[in-house]
Every structure is written in C-alpha cells, then in structure tokens.
Amino acid sequence: MAARHREVAMCDRTGEFLAIAEGLARRIATRPGIVGPPRVRTRSDFTQMTAQIGADIYATTQKLDKLAQLAQSRSLFDDPTVEVNELTIIIKQDLSSLNAKLRDVQLAMREYRAQTGARGGGRQAESHTAHVVDALKLQLSTAAKGFQDVLQVRSNNIRVQMDRQKQFEGAGRPAAGAMGGTGAQCGGAGCGGGARGAPAPLFTPPRAPLPDEPAGRIVETVIDIGRLGGAAGAGGAFGAQQAQMQEMLPSNYLESRALAVESVQSTIVELGTIFQQLQSVVAEQQHLVERIDAQVDETVMTVDSTQRQLLRLYQTMSGNRLAMKMLAMVVAFMMTYGAFFA
Amino acid sequence: MASIRARQTESINRMLDLNRASGADYGAAWQEPWKVLIYDRACQDVISPLLRVGDLRNRGITLHLLIDSEREAVPDVPAIYFVMPTAENVAKIGDDCARRLYDAYHVNFAAPVSRELLEELAAVTLRAEAVSQVSQVVDQYLGYVSLEDELVDLNVRGSFRRLNDPAASDASIETLLDSIATAIFSVLATLGVVPIIRCPRGGAAQMVADRLARRLRDALRSGAPSFADGSGSSAAFQRPVLVLAERSADMAVVLQHPWSYRALCHDLLGMRLNRLQCADSAAADDIAGAAGAPNGGKRITHAYNLEPSDFFWRAQAASPFPAVAEAVDAAIQAYRVQVEAINAGNANGAAGGAAGRAACASGGGGSCDDLGESTRQLQAAMSALPELQERKRVIDMHTNIATALLHKIKMTGLDSFVSAEEAVLARSLSAADRATLEELVTTGAAGTAEDRVRLLSLYFLLSSPPDAELARLTAALRAQGADVRPLAYLRTMAAFRTRVAMAASDGGKAKAAGGVMNSVFNFADKVGVGASTRSLTSTLAANVKQLLPAKRETILTRAVAAVLEAKPHADVDGYLTVDPRVSAEAHAADPSLARRGPFREALVFVIGGGSYLEYQNLLDYAAQAQGGGRRVLYGCTELLTGSELLAQLAQLGPAT
C-alpha cells in the first residue's frame, strides 16, 4: 500500500436512499413512522455470547503481545519476572475461561437453532452457527499457540540463564575456596548478616549498574560478578562480601529459576489439553483455501446427481403405474363381470 | 503504486468490514462480528480470484451465498449484499426484506446505481416495512475482475459481437459503451489516478473515451476523495496514460494459436478467472488399471487455481510449452533433493539422539546436549514440512496441467499449426510453407475444423493471399463441414477497412525478429500417453522441443510503445488526446493543452476482447523498454480464446 493514507473509492448513498424512502412514505402516507429511527435490536444469547467471546479473545491477544515483549526483554534494570508471572497467570486463566465459555456457547447454539427452526430457518442458520463457533475456536487456538510460543521462548531463556549460572558456579567456587577461611568465617560470624537478613533483593539480580557494563544482560552481569569476586578475592573485606554474595546468589536464584521453569512447563502442559479440545478445528482448515466459486461447481454436480436420482425414481414410478393400471383394469373387469353376469 | 489486485482486495475487505473507516478502532469490529455475504454471479467473479473462503471467514463472513440461490433466514445477523445494480437484484433484496431473512441489510452496488433503481429499492423496502433495517447503500467501484497484478478483465461478455452487430439497436450499444466506461472508471477510481486518454478516432474507443472523460470531469468537479491527488502535487507529473484500443485493429493475435504456458491453459484447457479444470490423467490411468474403471470410464477432473502467488506459475506462465515441461521436471528434481536432504538430516539426528540418550542415561554430562540438538533438527524438519507439502502440491498441479496440455497438443497436432502460423506471422512464406499450410487446411488430418479456420483466417489477415487461392481453401473447409462464416465476416471487414483507411495498412508491418521455423513436423511417431505422466521432457518429441516462437511485437504493443515514448508512429499520431483535468471547453479551444508524453505508466484497455498473448507481449515490452521503469496495466472487455472469437465472428457473418 502507498505510504500516504488513501481514501478507498466508494460513494455512500444511504442518505439519498433514506430521503427517497421518506418522500415515498409521506406520499403514500399509510403508516407514519415506518422510516423512523432504527428499531431496537433484540439479540439472542448466542449472538451476544459469541460477540463477547470474540472481544475477550481480542483482549487476551493484546495481553499476549505485551507478554511476548516482556519475555523478550532481559534488561538489567527492569527484570520482568514478576510481571511475566502475573501476566502468564492472567492469560492462562483467560484462556481456560474462554475455553469453558466456548462450551457454553454450544448449548446456546442449540437454543438458537431451535429458535430459528421455529422462524423457518434451517440449514443455513445451522452452518452459520457452526462457522461462528469454528471461527472462535480457531481464534482461541491461535491465541493459545501464540501463548505456547511465548512460554517456550521464556523457558529457553531461563534455561540458558541457568546453564550460565552453573558454569559460573563451577568457576567461582574454587576462587572462593582459595580465599581461605576469612570469607566463610565472616559469613558465619554475621558480618554478612546484613546480606542474609535481607535476602529478597538477591533473588533478583543486582540492580546496581556495574561500571564496565551498565547495559549488559542479566546473565552476563552475574558472570561478571563472579569474575569480579574472584579477582578481588585477595583484596580483603570487599572481596569477601562479594564471595559471599556468590554463595547465596546461585542457590536462591537457581531455586527461583527452577520454579519458574516448572511453572512455565506446567502451563505448557495445560495448554496441551486446550489444544486437544480444539484439534478438530485445525484438522478441517483444508476447505478454507477453496474459492467461493468452487462451491458452485459442487452444487452443479449435486444438482446433477439429484436429477439422476429423481429420474430413476420417476422411472420406477412409471413402472409402478403400469402395474397399477393393470390392476385397475382387472378390478374394473371383475366389477363389470360381477354386475352384469353374476 | 500498489497493484490493482492489492487495491481491489483492500476495497473489498473494507466493504466486508461494513465500510468502516480504515483507521477505526479494531474493537468496534466486535459490535457486529458475524456477517452473511450475498453476491450475484458477476460479483462472484470479482471476489473469486481475490479472496478464498478462509479470508472471508477471517473477516467474520460465516456464510457466502449467491443471491439467486435458495436462502433461509439467519436471524440476528447483518447481511452484506455485493451485487450489480440491476432491477432483478433490487427485487431480490426487496423479497429478502419482506421475508425478514436477516437482521440488517448493507447494500453495496459494484457499479454506481442509477436514481431510478435507488427509488425502486426504496419502494420495495418500504413495501416490506424494512427501510430502517437497510443500514447502508453504497456505490463501490469494483465492477471489474483483477486477475493479475497487471491484468484486468472488465467482465463484459460478447462485446465484439455486440459492438459490431449491424442489427443492434442504438440503445443496446449505448448501454454496452456505458458499462465499459463504468468498468474502466472503476479501475481508475480504485487506483486513484486521472490519466491522459489516447485513443483512435471515430470508433467505439472514442465513444468510450468521451464517456470516461465526462465521468472523470464530474468526479473531479464534485471533489471525489478517491482522486484526491491535487494537480499541483508531484504526482501530477507522473500521470499515467490511458490507451483505448479496439479489437478490430488486430484480430490475428486472438485467432493465432498460442504456444506459451498461460495462453495454452486459456486456449486449450479453458482457464477462466485463474481457474481451470482438467482431467487428472495420472489418477485416471491408475484407477482404470487398478480397479477396472469403477466410474464407468469417467475421468476424474480436478479444478486448479493458478494464483499469482504460485512460484512456478509466476516463473513459467510466459514460457513456451517445451520449456515449461523442462521446468516441471527440474522442479520435481529439486523437490526430491530437498526431501532427501531433510531425510538424511533426520536420520543423522535420530542416530545422534539415540546415542545421546544412552550417554545421558549412563550419566555422561556433555552428550545430553546432543539430545537437544536432535530435537531441534526434528523441529526444523517439522516446520519445513508444511512448506514442502505446499511445494509438492504446486508441482503436482503443474505436472497434471502440463500432462493434460501435452495430451491435447498431441491430439490436435497443435504444434504443426503453431509452426505454420509462425511462418505466416514472420511474413516469409516459402513454397514449402505454403504447401504445409494448404495441406493442414485441406486434408483435415490434424486439428479440429476450428483450428483450420483459425489458420486460414490468420493467413488471410496477414498475407492477403489472392482471392482465388482463398476461395479454393475456403471451399475445401466448407466441404469438411467447417463453419466458414467467420472468414466471410473477416473479408467484409477487411474490404471495409481498406476502403476507409488506405494509409494505416503499411504503418506497422511486422519486423520478424527470429528465423523461419522448421515446419516439418512428423506426428507419426506418437509417444505413449501413459508414460507421459512420469517425465514430461522425455515424452516430448525432439522436434517439438525446438519450437520456440520468435518474439515480435504485436500491433497494440507498438502503439503503446509509441505513446509511452512519444515517438512518431503512423497510427498513433492520429490518436485523439483527452485530458480530463482540462475542462471540455478549454480542450475544444486548444487541443494542445493535453500533454503528449513521454509517460512512465500506461493503462491499456482493449474494447472488444483481449488475449493472454497480447497481454504477455505488453509485459515483455514493459520489462525490456529502453530507459526502464515502464509499467503497463492491460485490461480488456473479456479474455477471448480463438474459438470464442470465432463464435462471435460466426454470428456476425452472413447467415448462409
């Protein structure tokens, strides 16, 4: 499309149409108010519910977009773990409640069909409802698929972080050990008590920017701390504190990460069940690549075969008619015989 | 400039969104998410090549129905009508309102609706007491079919016959010209351009040009938003030129037997609206062999859609048939290689994965990564699978089409006609060529009677043979039971034209670019059809393969080139020039006000029908034009095959 906004060519003649209708109505002057304000529409449960679900799916998709952004950002200052978890839970709830609502819709669909049946509707109303439900299912499964992808990305990221963490652990421990007992003693004696007393900030990676790499990623920063700690290990008290941080950080951090991975994976498994319920939709996507005139060809074919069937029926019927005629003649003969000769 | 296809799709999508402003909040679409689409035959043709059922569903269309099909009530749902403005359609809409079929009625006319019809619509809806349910009445400028990015079908059937029929009433011709002008105006409105119009004087083209200019001036005066380009903006300097041409200027290009893939699909397999049906020969053979023809010998026919998005079609549509056969084989080979590569990768991955699992279980730390690696490979293979499947589908489709074409070519001996016509077109008929031509026409060994009439017509149009020879050949054809009325009509037409304009005859004699074709084709050694489904090239006889027609520009292409490059040209110099931005009065006072080029873009419309061959020729010109960057859009009232044009000519010919 062109860069500039372009008006699509069309000409709205609703006003002209209404004016003509108004004029005609006045001239006929049968019933005033025919061309009044649009009547208040009463809508069936089915229509209302499906519209609501559609809007909800759209809202969920928007949340999902936000989550995808969060899951990708791994900036140092703004670790999104909390938000990601919150959003994950919200979206998970959304999806499962939508899934439940879709089941309710199928009930409303039956009601709607009964209602349309009463109003002379039939097959077309049925396929309308079926298509509505299909469309919703498809949208829901697309959203669920998107959610799954985001979670996959997230769990991969966490796993990468953990791997790095392990490496860092392996490299960091000997350095701490080489420092001798000072660090450990100090930790045991309570000079690191401040750190232990407030473990919460340690769960999340350090927020203070490091001078050499202010905008680095969390993972790299963690390793940097390790290196810093190892290098400064000989440097006395500061080094000792750092070393202690290392000791604390990995275990807590790892725990939280492991939990995160677990929750993400359990969510993926839960999504699997939703997928199973929606599977039938994905299977029947084939016909959607058809063109609208393909149906006409099919209709022509169906009409042909119907005609053939009718023809066959007609032939059997005419065969029967011959038999009926003969029967009638026999009866007539018998009656005349009975009337005149018996 | 976006292509006409993209623009038209955009417009249709907006209509399906109930004509909401494109910038409107998406959430608003949830007020009325589900809709029913109702269209007539003409509008079905408009939508079919552009949107699939899935696209409609994505737009919330749950049902799509023909207006004259049996329709039932679907309560609570708004209906979108997309129909031509005709009295029948308006009556149908009134019926639907009376039967209370839908909740609301959004009426979209594919062409501007007249005041009388609008009044009629108001009357019928009033009678049905449903005026307040008619939510919208909109004129859409969508009454044409965009088949490709540069190809438009104006969907006016039988236009050549209707324009040239001496018995036609003035009113019917007026209606026809109006509908052609409306369709072209719709294309311009969709594209949002006001071109400078060039056309030959004194014919249907000029009458269409007058109507078109009047409409464009009206639209500009009323400040229609679709033509919002101010004349002062930079866009004004790049205005395209609209060339209106008439079919009668070049009949030969439609009657000629084609040899390129797309044109063959049209001519032999009856491709219409990018869709064709042909017998699936491979499947038919297999079934006949395996199950003893349970269908009673009925061949399985398949419908194929040839979309511009199809990679093979895009690459090969213009290629001569033998090259297409080669390309099909090459595509199959490439596909096999790809599949094998993936299979090999998976085998390695699976082996590595098994080893990794063992090592992982026995406690080795490092090899656990191999497991992840093989999983990734498997995932890559899985994600490549849909793409491969799609590739396979496309290749299978083209294999079947090419096989069907080959079958037809062999049955009719089409290549002998193509080579004979090639000699005629090159205007260098040797004695041997003449002998072949006469043999083809008189013996009736190859091709249908229609093929022979086409060959003779071409011979007559391009070589103007002596009357005696023509009479002899015509008599021979008549003896075979062929319908020779088209020839008679062509003769009267030619006689008329020479009387009217002697000058135009020599202006654009073809310059044969290629050598004379070796026209000796021996069809005694026919190749078995059964084998042809496997490898196409191997079954193409060696002498068929050499048939690569020389490239020569058609009469239309030369005219368009002259207009675009502002070069002197015997015909084009006499063309009328109309600039709709200049008022009619100013124009009459000073005809030189209109700019005469050069131009970068041409919109070419042929009145009376066009052909894929002519279209392709224009595309080739645009691709190779000096200075580069020329763009051409080809439109015609309808795409004609040779036989369709013959049928129209036959109706015009003397009723003997």
UniProtKB/TrEMBL annotation, chain A:
Q: Under the GO molecular function aspect, what terms does this record hold?
A: SNAP receptor activity; SNARE binding
Entry keywords, A to Z: Coiled coil, Membrane, Transmembrane, Transmembrane helix, Transport
Q: Subcellular localization, per the record?
A: Membrane
Q: Which GO terms describe its cellular component?
A: Golgi membrane; SNARE complex
Q: Which PROSITE patterns match?
A: SYNTAXIN, T_SNARE
Read off the InterPro entries from this record: SNARE, Syntaxin, Syntaxin/epimorphin_CS, T_SNARE_dom
**GO BP: any one term:** vesicle docking
Q: Which residues cross the membrane?
A: 322-340
Residue ranges of domain T-SNARE coiled-coil homology in the record: 251-313
Primary location class: membrane
Q: Which SUPFAM superfamilies match?
A: t-snare proteins (SSF47661)
Q: How does it sit in the membrane?
A: Single-pass type IV membrane protein
Entry annotated with the keyword Transmembrane helix: yes
Q: Family assignment?
A: Belongs to the syntaxin family.
UniProt xrefs under PANTHER family: SYNTAXIN, SYNTAXIN-5
The name this protein goes by in its record: t-SNARE coiled-coil homology domain-containing protein
UniProtKB/TrEMBL annotation, chain B:
In which domain of life is the source organism classified? Eukaryota
GO biological process terms, semicolon-separated? vesicle-mediated transport
* InterPro entries documented for this protein: Sec-1-like_dom1 (IPR043154), Sec-1-like_dom3a (IPR043127), Sec1-like (IPR001619), Sec1-like_dom2 (IPR027482), Sec1-like_sf (IPR036045)
Pfam families, alphabetically?
Answer: Sec1
Q: Which family does it belong to?
A: Belongs to the STXBP/unc-18/SEC1 family.
Protein name per the record: Uncharacterized protein
Q: Which organism is it from?
A: Diacronema lutheri (Unicellular marine alga)
